[in-house]
Amino acid sequence: MTHYLRVGVGGPVGSGKTALLKQLCLALRDHYDIAVVTNDIYTREDADFLLKHDALAADRILGVETGGCPHTAIREDASMNLAAIDELQSRHPALELVMVESGGDNLSATFSPELSDLTLYVIDVSAGDKIPRKGGPGITKSDLLIINKIDIAEQVHASLEVMDRDARKMRGERPFVFTNLHDGVGVEEIVAFILERGMLPERRPASQRAGAATATLGEAPAGA
């Protein structure tokens, strides 16, 4: 069986998990063999969103209806997600990367090691600049913390400087990135992180990488 990288994407409801998956699919689909599993409690809305926006072909996206607490399906009993990954791997034997989006959950959500090699955790500024210092495994232990919606920080009276300071304090040496996923700001850093930490070869042309809107890991973009 071909080994593939498993990336877990977690975060509260509305933080931008599905927007992140869309951006990652658009950035990677022409260069890597990828697939996505989404988790919703009662619907397959996130999977439908990705299909509607042509993020990937339909046979590369599976929606799982967990029917219960979202974190159970990614931690205590990951069987539904593991079955979905097995199905995607059987459809695409050369699969290199599968991304698993959890249902919206609280700051304590974590992925089972069976399900994820790397974890990305998405929060957003609309919940307030206090979120990083609240801690929880998603904030402190994820491989990459993503602080999204920096474009509305001023409107919601959230200080990116405070979030930067607190993220550094809570995470130590673990990286984080500020993003505006709607406009693609910060996506290049996330892609580069996945490729490097996941030990996937860089196949994207230099022109594609150079033209991306960027935000340095651990630093809010200038003018944000």
UniProtKB/TrEMBL annotation:
Record Gene3D superfamilies: P-loop containing nucleotide triphosphate hydrolases
Compartmental location: Cytoplasm
Record keywords: Chaperone, Cytoplasm, GTP-binding, Nickel insertion, Nucleotide-binding
A Pfam family assignment: cobW
GO molecular function: GTP binding; GTPase activity; nickel cation binding
Keyword tRNA-binding part of the UniProt annotation: no
Binding sites annotated in the UniProt record for GTP: 11-18
A single GO cellular-component term on record: cytoplasm
Primary role: Facilitates the functional incorporation of the urease nickel metallocenter. This process requires GTP hydrolysis, probably effectuated by UreG.
Family according to the record: Belongs to the SIMIBI class G3E GTPase family. UreG subfamily.
Record-linked PANTHER family: UREASE ACCESSORY PROTEIN G
NCBIfam families referenced in this protein's UniProt entry, alphabetically: ureG (TIGR00101)
Record note on quaternary structure: Homodimer. UreD, UreF and UreG form a complex that acts as a GTP-hydrolysis-dependent molecular chaperone, activating the urease apoprotein by helping to assemble the nickel containing metallocenter of UreC. The UreE protein probably delivers the nickel.
Name of this protein: Urease accessory protein UreG
Organism: Chromohalobacter marismortui
Gene giving rise to this polypeptide: ureG
